[in-house]
Amino acid sequence: MSETITTPEAASRRPVPAARGGRPRRRKLTFDRVTFFLAFLGIPLAVFVTFVLIPFVQAVYWGMTDWRGFSPDYNFVGLDNFTKMFEDDIFLKALRNVTLLAAFVPLVTLTLALGVAVAITLGGPSKGPVRGIRGASFYRIVSFFPYVVPAIIVGLIWAQMFDPNAGLVNGFLTRLGFDFESFSWLGEEATAMPSLMFVFVWGLVGFYAVLFIAAIKGVPAELYEAAKIDGAGRFRTTISITLPAIRDSVQTAYIYLGIAALDAFVFVQALLPNGGPNNSTLTISQRLFNVAFRQGQFGYATAMGVVLAVVTLVFAALVFGVNRLTGGGEGKEKENARGLKARRAGAKGGAK
């Protein structure tokens, strides 16, 4: 006759008995549970409320005043600042500019970063196990180098390189036989914004390439082996395996990069401190800075900051919504993984 020994660990895993009506009973609030929630939920929530929500509410309030910034006297003007803002042609142009940056910079940067990451991690020999190219560590360091340089330094360097008289860009293109002598890349309305976008992409693509390399290395190798058994090529593997597996990383990167593009103060201030020709590169943050510290209209500038925050939240919500509509989520990824494993097992069974 055998005895059953119940260990404390096994006892702790017993299901909670159901109460009347089939509902599980609520666990008692013990000191351990209370301290856990206070430490890991209460403190972060308090910090978030103190340093995020309360300042945002204060910003909304100051955005409804005519505060001059250096005086305790101000008047409450309601929504006049917001009405004035959307009647301001300069602000509307700045809003259009940051919308262009948020639309193109993340898309181009992440596409290039993903291409570099896939080439480094999965671009090795087609025979044998899936592996990266030789010298992958060297390429990671080289691609990450521009991100190590401070953004203000990157902007100043490229401002010198785009110089129409002694810049490296014009000199290189002239040597190749193109007629770009004395061409002002940052002084022409047609090329100022593309030049700014190029500097953005150049400065940030390396960081996101390294981020995607780390994400791809976390994808199970058996998924790539299953795709290889199915006869999938490198492009098909990237679309069907790599992208779904690192979807959350791509989503997070898109949001962070979109926020950086919507702000776009450091790069623009270093390259085009006056907003470019005909305000073609002026951003909301630049307009806000000029209105606050050069015109002394801090209430109006605060209202611009509130609008910029709302635009950023809308951008993040759109990214989350598109990700969900296009099949994002852990459930979809697990379903794809199970399907690939099943096809792999079927392929092995057929081979036998």
From TrEMBL:
Compartments, record wording: Cell membrane
CDD domains named in the record: TM_PBP2
Membrane topology according to the record: Multi-pass membrane protein
Keyword Plastid: no
Record key words, sorted: Cell membrane, Membrane, Transmembrane, Transmembrane helix, Transport
Membrane spanning residue stretches: 34-57, 100-125, 137-159, 195-216, 253-272, 298-322
UniProt-annotated stretches for the region Disordered: 1-23, 330-352
Keyword Transmembrane attributed: yes
Composition-biased stretches (Low complexity): 8-21
Compositional bias ranges of the Basic residues kind: 340-352
Residue span, ABC transmembrane type-1 domain: 95-319
Record-linked SUPFAM superfamilies: MetI-like
Family membership: Belongs to the binding-protein-dependent transport system permease family.
Protein name, entry field: Carbohydrate ABC transporter permease
Organism, as annotated: Streptomyces polyrhachis
